[in-house]
Amino acid sequence: MAKNTICLWYDKDAEAAANFYVETFPDSAMGAAIRAPGNYPEGKQGDVLVVEFTVAGISCVGLNGGPVFKHNEAFSFQIYTEDQEETDRYWNAIVGNGGQESECGWCKDKWGVSWQITPRILMDALREGGDQAKRAFDAMMTMKKIDVAAIDAARHG
């Protein structure tokens, strides 16, 4: 287990979420599922309390903490993509599996975790600055899923 890990709070679906992330993103793996050693107010002995997993190289823990806390956009995974095919694959996996679209490359999975599916070409344009960054940014502001060709066209004027 990593010294530093991200802990994500779920109602009772941490294991299902972790399995989805592992199936969807490369450099991902399941770890241990830690089960309740006895009954407790929200569940029973043997229920999964915590699941350890890695998503896109990031060490995570999914905690089945109950319905008290919900995910929001204050936390998101940002996944950099190389082309439209990769962008579409991740976007469609998240949105097509009960998730929802948002703006500017953001979407949420069915558990409420926010994802930024971000083509590198967009970040390259923004890093470059100047007119190219402004054109790419303006184009991005009109999009839900990022259109790589449109960003490239805007970037080069």
TrEMBL record:
CDD domains with a match to the protein in the record:
PhnB_like
PhnB-like domain residues are 3-118
Protein name as it appears in the record = Glyoxalase superfamily enzyme, possibly 3-demethylubiquinone-9 3-methyltransferase
UniProt xrefs under Pfam families: 3-dmu-9_3-mt (PF06983)
Give GO terms: molecular function aspect only. Answer: methyltransferase activity
The taxonomy runs:
Bacteria, Pseudomonadati, Pseudomonadota, Alphaproteobacteria, Hyphomicrobiales
Keyword Transmembrane helix (UniProt): no
- Keywords assigned by UniProt, alphabetized: Methyltransferase, Transferase, Ubiquinone
- Identify the InterPro entries for this entry: 3_dmu_93_MTrfase, Glyas_Bleomycin-R_OHBP_Dase, PhnB-like
Q: Name one GO biological process term.
A: methylation
